[in-house]
Write a structure and sequence with these properties.
elongated
């Protein structure tokens, strides 16, 4: 931690900007547990492990042959957690008093080498470089966790012989539904910070819901009922102040409801199209 204070701060902020909560030892506070047990317990309760390594091997508890730093990595591996490791570039200047001497230096070199053989690790040269690479790696991974992305990818891989035009239309409609839902959530988050609306962004949301609705209406077969509610959502964002909570509920245009229904309908269509494509291939002489 001592030689990576600014690096860790910027990496933390990069992860938080992705909407994730960060646990790290420098904010553990007073605990009755031994430091190693506290660290391992945090890994057990976390969804993703991020390792940042420079030139210090770390503290080796009494009775242990490896440092807490190495124990954390091995515990995450044992639990099969998603792991992202970042190692400082060997050519990056570093304070001599922050470079481990022997025996730690050899143990750290062995740990880095092992990480490089079992994972695709990245190197960093500055706090800003590290933050960018952490955000990129985490963002790419989090995108695969989105049910819409994950399920669509699975469906698209089942049968590459399904009609390309139908596949493209459904993917386009689904992408638009995902994009406008995320844009709406981002706007809500901005509102909580600024405590005021933004008419230009609300106009853009209105246009986005309208375009997504048009793509739903153009599907084979058209999702007219869902598209109509997208159009109503577009009308809402054209003048949100005129809508009451009762009117929103009656129109069934809540963001969670629309997102879940969009996912169910579009993925059902995609699955049906893929099955039909399989039948057509099977029936060929």
């Amino acid at each position: 931690y001592q030689d990576l204070v600014e690096y860790r701060r910027q990496a933390k902020e990069a992860v938080e900007r992705l909407g994730q909560q960060v646990e790290r030892m420098e904010v553990f506070g007073a605990r009755s547990e031994e430091p190693q047990q506290a660290c391992l317990r945090e890994i057990e309760s976390s969804d993703i492990f991020v390792g940042i390594y420079a030139h210090r091997y770390g503290y080796i508890p009494p009775g242990s042959e490896i440092s807490i730093t190495e124990s954390e990595f091995r515990h995450a591996m044992h639990l099969k957690k998603p792991i992202f490791c970042f190692v400082v570039d060997d050519n990056q200047p570093w304070l001599p008093n922050m470079i481990e001497g022997e025996l730690g230096r050899s143990k750290l070199a062995a740990l880095k080498a092992e990480i490089g053989t079992v994972l695709v690790r990245e190197t960093f040269k500055s706090p800003e470089d590290l933050a960018m690479k952490v955000a990129t790696a985490m963002g790419r991974y989090l995108a695969t966790l989105d049910p819409l992305v994950r399920d669509l990818r699975s469906l698209m891989n089942r049968n590459p012989d399904a009609p390309e035009q139908d596949r493209r239309a459904i993917v386009d409609a689904l992408s638009s539904a995902v994009d406008i839902a995320r844009a709406t959530l981002a706007y809500f988050a901005d509102q909580r910070t600024s405590l005021q609306g933004n008419r230009e962004k609300e106009r853009q949301l209105s246009e986005g819901w309208q375009k997504a609705g048009l793509k739903l209406a153009a599907l084979p077969p058209p999702a007219f009922e869902l598209a109509e509610r997208y159009f109503i959502k577009a009308n809402y964002w054209a003048d949100p102040d005129s809508w009451t909570a009762e009117r929103i509920e009656k129109a069934r245009i809540g963001l969670d409801e629309l997102s879940e229904e969009s996912r169910a309908i579009l993925l059902a269509m995609q699955s049906a199209n893929l099955s039909a494509g399989t039948d057509r291939v099977r029936d060929k002489p």
